[in-house]
Amino acid sequence: MLIRKLFKFENAHIVRNCTSDRCKRSIHGHSYKIELLLKANKLDHGQMVYDFGLLKGVIKDLFDSFDHAICFWNQDSADYTKACQKFSARWISLPVSPSAEQFSRIFFFLAQQVLHSTQTQNGEGDVEVYSVIVHETETGYAQSFVEDIENLQMGELSLDSIVFSEQIQSEWSNPQMYEYLKEGKMFQNPSVELQVKL
Fold this sequence. Notes:
- The strands form 2 sheets. A 7-stranded mixed β-sheet has the order 7-6-2-1-3-4-8, sandwiched between helices. The chain has a two-stranded parallel sheet with strand order 5-9.
- With 198 residues, it is α/β, with parallel strands linked by helices.
- It is built from 7 helices and 9 strands.
- The chain starts with a strand and ends in a 10-residue tail after the last strand.
- It has helices spanning 21-25, 58-64, 78-87, 100-116, 146-150, 166-170, 177-183, and strands spanning 2-13, 28-39, 69-73, 91-94, 118-119, 128-135, 141-144, 163-164, 187-188.
- The chain is 28% helix and 26% strand.
C-alpha cells in the first residue's frame, strides 16, 4: 500500500551545464512541490502505513530546510559558492547539481535515511520510501525510485556531502538532528497506548 505526503517550499538555484541559457547562467527560483510516497506491506495498530503526524518531525524539518534557501553544487566556482554563503543566511551545498532530477534523489535519500534511523512504536511494518516526485513548475516534474538513489552514475549521495548553513540548522526543532543522523543515532517515535485491544 502507498501513502503520499505533499511538502511545499520556495528555492533558488543555478543549474550549470544545462541546455537552457537562462537556467545555467542566472540565479532563479521555483515554487516546489515535493510528493513523498511511502509503502508498506503491513499496517500499524492505527491501520495506517505511517501516521502523517510523524512526518511533521525530522523529515519535515529537513525538507523545510530548502525553503527560502539557495542551493548550489559544491563543484561550482569557488567565487559563486562563497557569494551564496556570504549573501544568504539560508544555503545548502549539494554533491550534485540542484536540478529537479537531483532534488528528487536528495529528498528520497534524506527521507530514507530518517526512516532507517527511526525506532517505531506503533506496530509499523516495513515502511520504506517508494518514490519522490519533485514538481519544479506546474508543467514539469522529476520522479525517483530506489534504483536511482543507488545509481552512482547519477552522482553519489551521502549525509556528509549535503551541508546545511548554520542559520538553517538553528531553525530545526533539534539543531543537532543532522549530526545525530550522520552518527547513526536512532530517533524514537512517540509511544502509543492502544485504546482497542487487537
